[in-house]
Specification:
With 323 residues, the chain is α+β, with helices and mostly antiparallel strands. The chain has 2 domains: 3-173, Tumour Suppressor Smad4 (Sandwich); 178-322, no CATH class. Helix content is 39%, strand content 20%. It contains 8 helices and 16 strands. It has helices spanning 158-161, 169-172, 177-183, 185-209, 218-236, 248-264, 267-284, 290-322, and strands at 3-6, 12-13, 23-25, 32-34, 37-38, 44-53, 61-63, 69-73, 80-81, 92-96, 102-106, 113-115, 118-120, 122-125, 130-133, 136-143. Strands 1, 2, 5, 6, 7, 12, 13, 15 and 16 form a 9-stranded mixed beta sheet that branches. A 5-stranded mixed beta sheet has the order 9-8-10-11-14, with no helix packed on it. The chain has a two-stranded antiparallel ribbon with strand order 3-4. α3 (177-183) packs across α8, α4 (185-209) runs antiparallel to α5 (218-236) and α4 packs antiparallel against α7. The radius of gyration is 23 Å and the shape is elongated.
Length: 323
């Protein structure tokens, strides 16, 4: 799975060519986030947090920014927000120092923060060590910028080969299509939204040029489609469980788009948008039961297929009108 990068203010950050990036600036709070540390030999490493066990989201990985407090809890605004009855609003916080140490501190949570079988108030996390809060277990790893395993700063490389690594047994055992859909539902939702964004932008750009008696100019229609593409793309990147409320933006935008399409007479795409909004709501508001995962996925596939069909029809009609 790809890395999720979040600012401590709760804003998810998008980044291409992550292996080449040393720092990022959060557009919301203007904070510069350092992503890696270096030892005296100028060997760099990054701290990665992986969800190993839990009711959902197993396998998701998060890159720890350097030198800032990273809060984990149940409410929005935390660096990592987890919807779980056994997790307090502000449960614990992590801190990755420039010297390469990762510390963890419990924030007076009700169920506690645990390293192995020990409930802790504060402590240092070792490479490949796990900690637990609520029903979730996390593992800390260190990686080189290219993704290869790396020791923590100041730790000999050979120590990694003798360490017992926790494994993702709960992912590989009894894997079914429904469990795969539930586990990767946010990634599936983001990909579906991105594909839909391109389709609906092309469809509307073509449809606006075909309206009689006042067809739009190609430039105005294309600019309108580009605006829709940009808006939907921004929303699709906010579909992440790490932020409690941002994930609802895509659903709201789809419902608004369906209302506009119904008002101007584009009925089939409007129904498809509502179907996709229902799919996202069923996938990302709460983890669906295994019995409902496949039907929900089929509903989303039907909505996406309908959008593909109407987009091809609009492209064909525009081509026929022009040539």
């Amino acid at each position: 799975m790809s890395l999720v990068i979040c600012c401590p203010c709760g804003n998810p950050l998008d980044c291409d060519n992550l292996e080449l990036v040393v720092s990022l600036v959060c557009p919301r709070c203007d904070r510069e986030l350092l992503l890696e540390v270096a030892d005296k030999d100028d060997v760099t490493s990054r701290a990665i947090l992986t969800i190993m066990e839990g009711p959902r989201w197993i396998g998701e990985r998060f890159l720890l920014p350097v030198g800032v407090d990273l809060a984990i809890g149940a409410t929005g605004g935390n660096w990592l927000s987890l919807e779980d009855d056994n997790i307090s609003d502000e449960h614990c916080k992590l801190h990755f120092t420039e010297s390469g140490r990762v510390s963890i501190e419990d924030l007076c949570s009700a169920s506690g923060t645990w390293i192995a079988d020990q409930r802790i108030l504060r402590g240092r996390l070792q490479p490949c060590q796990s900690f637990k809060l609520g029903d979730f277990r996390f593992r800390l790893d260190f990686q080189a910028p290219d993704g290869a395993p790396a020791p923590a700063v100041g730790e000999p490389v050979e120590d990694l080969s003798t360490r017992n690594l926790p494994t993702l047994d709960s992912v590989t055992s009894r894997q079914t299509p429904a469990r795969w859909l539930i586990r990767d539902r946010f990634r599936i939702a983001r990909t579906t939204m991105l594909v839909y964004a391109w389709l609906v932008a092309v469809h509307h750009a073509c449809w606006l040029q075909l309206q009689e008696p006042y067809p739009w100019s190609p430039l105005a229609a294309c600019l309108t489609g580009a605006g829709m593409l940009i808006g939907l793309t921004i929303c699709c990147h906010r579909v992440t469980f790490a932020h409690k409320y941002c994930k609802f933006a895509s659903i709201a935008v789809l419902v608004l788009l369906a209302a506009v399409d119904l008002a101007i007479g584009i009925h089939v795409p409007a129904v498809a948008a509502l179907g996709l909004a229902a799919t996202l709501a069923l996938l990302i508001v709460r983890a669906p039961p295994e019995s409902a995962a496949i039907p929900v996925a089929l509903l989303g596939l039907a909505a996406l297929t309908t959008t593909v069909v109407v987009t091809i029809q609009s492209l064909t009609s525009l081509f026929a009108a022009r040539f």
